[in-house]
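As practice, study what follows.
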Amino acid sequence: MQPFALNYARPAATLEATTPYAYDSGMQLNVLMDGRVAARDHALMRELGTTTSTAGSKTHFDD
């Protein structure tokens, strides 16, 4: 017997997303492609709300 919900469950849509920043292990924070600290870019913070990396918790702002 299969649960009712499994008849209607759909896989989550995969969204193609690119981040305008990358983690710099030397500085231990996210930087923009031009080398500036991502957390200091106010327009980026307004747009994304936060920057996350594998270095820190995804519930905190840039580590």
Remarks:
- The first helix runs from residue 42 to 48.
- The chain has a mean pLDDT of 76.
